[in-house]
Amino acid sequence: MKLRVLGCSGAEFPGHHPSAFLIDGCLLLDGGTIGAVLDEEDQWLIKDILITHPHLDHIRGIPLLADNIVIKGLSGQVNVIGTAETLGALSSHLMNGLIWPDFTKIPTPENPVLRFREIAPGSEFAVGDYRVTACRVNHTVPAVAYRIEGGGSSLLYTGDTGPCAPLWEMAGHLSALVIEVSFPNELEELASMTGHLTPLLLQKELKKLPAPPGRILITHLKPQYYDQITAQLAALGLAGVEVMRDGDVYEL
Question: Which of 1, 4, 197, 227 has a 20 to 30 A CA-CA distance from 48?
Answer without folding.
Answer: 197
